[in-house]
């Protein structure tokens, strides 16, 4: 048995009989989600009358429950001193304005310098997720997408935020600079998003196993040959906004994956000034601008906004100057 952090002993009351064991434990232990309780049960850290049971076991009146909670296992990831733009923080969660160029989670080719590395350094006393000292990444932003993210510090917060994302009660708004200008002021894109049938690193609306995806948009500002959209995500599929904008015929400026080369060549011939302005985009001009959710600990509504980053502001200012010259 591992070194334990705490040992708890319970006796099932008559009005508690019939509950699933994982639900019973989640209701008794602070900051313990049902999924984490199930994990502890499967690993043998929780016993009923000295016997191992399954997470779905229905507890009976007067049964004795022994819970030995292991200390969080140290993560293999070593924290790094990285600049974090923290908008809000308490004992349960952090809200961070992620800069473009920063990868969220370690992966092949990105073993250092990620957001997770920075959080681990900033929070050396992190309670951990799923029995491991790591932050709870509930949602992600692409490397070159800037903006707001919420990160859980413990299991209960992680579980509740994940539920809010799943039931689509979290409000997610983005700003996207697109090539072209839609004829209407607003609209929606309701197309499934899945893996591209040929190019496996890309997503597509034409894959055979696409998942439902809904994107609402409205024009916030128009320029000659471009537009700034305010986008609200109702689902959270990989590359959803980028794929949906391409499917709509208005790819995001600076997107190297979902903008066809022919479009840029055509633009260079038809509007060289616009082409030169948009060439300054070193990444997709997509910013996670606003995030609203209920605080998992007290249910209080929270709403956060992240200022538009400087590189995006510079291009927008140039487009505004161009608009004045053509008026």
Overview of the molecule:
With 327 residues, this protein is an alpha+beta fold. It has 3 domains: 4-70, Structural Genomics Hypothetical 15.5 Kd Protein In mrcA-pckA Intergenic Region, Chain A, CATH 3.10.290.10; 74-167, 2-Layer Sandwich (Pseudouridine synthase); 168-327, Pseudouridine synthase (2-Layer Sandwich), CATH 3.30.2350.10. The chain has helices spanning 21-28, 34-42, 115-122, 155-166, 240-248, 261-270, 272-278, 310-326; strands at residues 4-11, 46-48, 51-52, 64-70, 86-89, 93-98, 136-137, 146-152, 171-179, 186-190, 194-195, 203-204, 214-223, 226-233, 286-294, 301-305. Strands 5, 6, 7, 8, 9, 10, 13, 14, 15 and 16 form a 10-stranded mixed sheet that branches. Helix 1 packs across helix 2 and helix 6 crosses helix 7 (272-278). The longest helix has 17 residues, at 310-326. The protein is elongated.
């Amino acid at each position: 048995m591992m070194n334990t952090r705490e040992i708890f002993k319970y006796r099932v009351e008559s009005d508690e009989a019939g509950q699933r064991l994982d639900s019973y434990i989640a209701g008794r232990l602070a900051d313990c989600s049902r999924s984490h309780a199930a994990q502890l049960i499967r690993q043998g850290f929780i016993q009923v009358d000295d016997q191992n049971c399954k997470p779905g076991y229905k507890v009976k009146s007067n049964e004795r429950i022994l819970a030995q909670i292991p200390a969080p296992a140290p993560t293999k990831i070593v924290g790094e001193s990285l600049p974090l733009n923290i908008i809000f923080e308490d004992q349960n969660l952090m809200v961070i304005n992620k800069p473009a160029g920063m990868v969220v989670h370690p992966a092949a080719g990105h073993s250092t310098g990620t957001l997770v590395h920075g959080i681990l350094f900033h929070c050396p006393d992190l309670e951990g997720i799923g029995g491991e000292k790591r932050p709870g990444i509930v949602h992600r932003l692409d490397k070159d997408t800037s903006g707001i993210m919420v990160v859980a510090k413990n299991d209960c917060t992680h579980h509740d935020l994940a539920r809010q994302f799943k039931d689509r009660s979290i409000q997610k708004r983005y700003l996207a600079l697109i090539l072209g200008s839609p004829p209407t002021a607003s609209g929606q894109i309701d197309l499934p998003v899945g893996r591209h049938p040929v190019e496996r690193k890309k997503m597509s609306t034409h894959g055979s196993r696409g998942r439902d995806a809904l994107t609402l948009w409205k024009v916030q500002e128009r320029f000659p040959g471009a537009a700034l959209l305010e986008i609200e995500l109702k689902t959270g599929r990989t590359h959803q906004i980028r794929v949906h904008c391409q499917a709509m015929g208005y790819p995001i400026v600076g997107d190297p994956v979902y903008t066809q080369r022919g479009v840029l060549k055509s633009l260079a011939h038809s509007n060289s000034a616009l082409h030169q302005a948009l060439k300054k985009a070193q990444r997709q001009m997509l910013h996670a601008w606003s995030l609203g959710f209920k605080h998992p600990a007290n249910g209080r509504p929270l709403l956060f906004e992240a200022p538009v980053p400087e590189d995006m502001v510079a291009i927008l200012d140039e487009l505004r100057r161009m608009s004045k010259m053509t008026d």
